[in-house]
Amino acid sequence: MVSIYSFFLVTLSITWAHAAKFNIINNCPYTVWAAAVPGGGIKLDNGQTWTITAEPGTTRARIWARTNCQFDASGKGKCETGDCNGLLECQGDGAAPHTLAEYALKQFDDLDFIDMSNIDGFNVPMEFSSVSPSCNRTIKCNANILGECPTELKVPGGCNGPCPVFKTNEYCCNSGNCGPTDLSKFFKDRCPDVYSYPKDDPTSTFTCPSGTNYEVVFCPPLTRRSK
């Protein structure tokens, strides 16, 4: 008879054997403070990598970069963009503007759902890609959004999304009824595979088989790296 303790160990080993790995790489020529929920946060200088894992069934997960941060020895401080309640190790969502990678693991039909979003704006170019043989998916937003940002969306260090700025149903889809706007099209024209407004699902949500591993690159090269 298998003991409860042995069963627990077997179950735990199976769960973690299928946990997804995320390599988060800073390719920017400047320091960023990577953030992940779940995962926390860490300072990444140019060329550094942070690896996190997430269990099957994880939902509403997100990864982003914060810029121009200052933290004290206790991990409290503030970032110009992407700040998460003044904490180095994030426990909740980041403040706009920030370029966002999102995922939910092992969902309907045993699939991972992945996307990138500019709904809360843009602060750092980003690429979100699968790195397992079972899936070949790359989502990228590497346009000159900071340089071309509409005046009404410009903020220090970033380009805000129209929803955080105007907070109206037209931009935020609070009633569930909305479509693209001129301001959301600014983002969509430059990053066509990335969410530009909340109902942008048909062209912005992608899937990979459960068990896929992933990579998030801040400031990715203009040409795709070979795997």
UniProtKB/TrEMBL annotation:
Transmembrane segments: none annotated. Disulfide bonds join C28-C219, C69-C79, C84-C90, C141-C191, C149-C159, C163-C172, C173-C178. SUPFAM superfamilies: Osmotin, thaumatin-like protein. InterPro entries: Osmotin/thaumatin-like_sf (IPR037176), Thaumatin (IPR001938), Thaumatin_CS (IPR017949). It comes from the Eukaryota. The keyword Cytoplasm does not apply. Gene3D superfamilies: Thaumatin. Pfam families: Thaumatin (PF00314). Keywords: Disulfide bond, Signal. Residues 1-19 form the signal peptide. Coiled coil: none annotated. Belongs to the thaumatin family. This is Thaumatin-like protein.
